[in-house]
Amino acid sequence: MAGDAVKARNGSMVAYDGRMSFKKMTGGGEGLRGMVTRRITGEQMEVMEVAGHGTCWFADRASEVNLVRLNGEKLFVEASNLLCAEASLRTGTSFTGLRGASQGNGLFTTTVEGHGRAALLSDGPAVVLRVSHGMPLQVDPGAYVAHTGDLRQQFQTGISWRTAVGEGSGESFQIRFEGEGLVYVQPSERNTIGGQL
Amino acid sequence: MNHFQGPAGGGPVVHDAHSLPVDDNVNPYAFSVDLKGEWFLQKGKMIAYYGRIDFQGLGAGPLDRLVAANFHSPLHTSDWVVASGQGRMVLADRAFDVNSYDLTDGNLTIRSGNLLAFQPGLALKQSIVPGFLTLLGTGKFIASSNGPVHFVEPPLRVDPQALVGWADCPSPCHHYDHGYLRGVMGGIRQLTGLGGVSGEEHQYEFAGAGTVLLQSSETVVPVVDGPSGAGQQAAAHGPAGMQLPGQLGDLQRRFGL
């Protein structure tokens, strides 16, 4: 870091050298509109701006940290999985629909776009899976971390009467990704409502 | 040329349906299965897949024959599913280490929480040791462990929490170290608990020829009660994450209580 700034999740700094200043950014540093959007959507993100010269280390509960470089694409990530992003990246909120609900993360997600790098948190190193035309990918909602690129998400269920009598497969819900892009999957499943069915 | 790349230089490897390894590890915590036909999986261990794959609970009608031939553990019926179809699927277990093992006309007993998946060439049976499952036959299975697995040959005594499983040797027996209870001080310890214990008074003892699998941690991989179940709570409360046979948990779960 040389005089530039980084947006990071509040309290994630573990060490730094050089000179740094830490400033809380109300409403995710997205201005008044962003603040209101986040308040309404419940996709809360406590961030701080770190600026200065030197090296700053970020970490969160020994979760795995994955770097993603963005060249103008949009990264969709849950606020809880975003550790920090370069200040050159814009963050925002977008609607995810049923997919978000299935993960227990609400109906909205955080987007990061622009040029620069962002750091994602995952439980265990994320596996990066490519989706291209004719090669759709199904992901367990509990293992999904983030995705980039031009992807359509579709929520698919395998619920039948068996689920109702407790003979479900435990894999009843999947997010189906189609299009062109990359999906980040963690080798662990969060607790989801759909996970038990 | 695709411009969706990871960080330039030394970034994470991007996998797709063709570059995912065939029946091998993607990284130490995730395993890719090239599915052609059927595999048994523990519920909730599939994190992603390409291709056409169906997941069905073991009670499902079309699977009757497969279950009758390969699955003999009524206690765990509700924890397992069969994946059938064509494609590559990625399996993982709460970011624990995952490894595959090949069994050739052999037998292996493993802690039930550690077993993730197995090929139908193997038959799963409930071990007479509570909390353990035995695999018989030929095929591949996938197991998780808290830290890498070590293979050791008997005779030896192992810490109960570090034991993952054993192959080809007779079942272990308990070994209690009573040496520390001798003498006046030992008597005081035994009666009052004063003076403390070393924590290594109890071991499993293996004898005979075979292989013992140990994990490099004394925290047992907890049994999952469904992906969001009590298994993780048990993990938080202590290493005793095993569900005892005869507990109502399974039935209650089955009836959705």
Structure commentary:
The complex is a heterodimer of chains A (197) and B (257). The model of chain A is unreliable at 193-197 (pLDDT under 50). Chain A has three helices and eleven strands; from the N terminus they run ββαββββαββββαβ. Chain A starts with a strand and ends in a 12-residue tail after the last strand. Chain A is mainly beta and 197 residues long. Chain A has one domain (2-196): Mitochondrial biogenesis AIM24 (Double-stranded beta-helix, 4-Layer Sandwich). Chain B is built from four helices and 16 strands. Chains A and B meet through β4, β8, β9 and β11 of A and β1, β4 and β6 of B.
What is this structure, in a nutshell?
With 197 residues, chain A is mostly beta strands. Chain A has helices at residues 31-41, 98-103, 161-164; strands at 2-9, 13-25, 47-58, 64-77, 82-86, 89-95, 108-122, 127-131, 137-139, 144-157, 173-185. Strand 8 (127-131) of chain A pairs parallel with strand 1 of chain B, so a sheet runs across the interface.
Computed CA radius of gyration of chain A, to the nearest angstrom? 18 Å
Write the H/E string of chain A, N to C: EEHEEEEHEEEEHE
The whole-number mean of residue pLDDT values of chain A reads 72
CATH architecture of chain A: 4-Layer Sandwich
Number of strands of chain B: 16
Counted up, domains of chain A total 1
- Low-pLDDT ranges of chain A: 193-197
Oligomer: heterodimer
CATH class of chain A: Alpha Beta
Distance between the termini of chain B: 53 Å
Give the SSE string of chain B.
Answer: EEEEHEEEEEEEEEEHEEHH
What is the first-to-last residue Cα distance of chain A? 47 Å
Instruction: Briefly note the structural class of the backbone of chain A.
Output: mainly beta
The general outline of chain A is elongated
For this structure, the CATH topology of chain A is Double-stranded beta-helix
Quote the average pLDDT of chain B.
Answer: 75
The residue fraction in helices of chain A comes out at: 10-25%
Helix proportion of chain B: 10-25%
Number of helical regions of chain A: 3
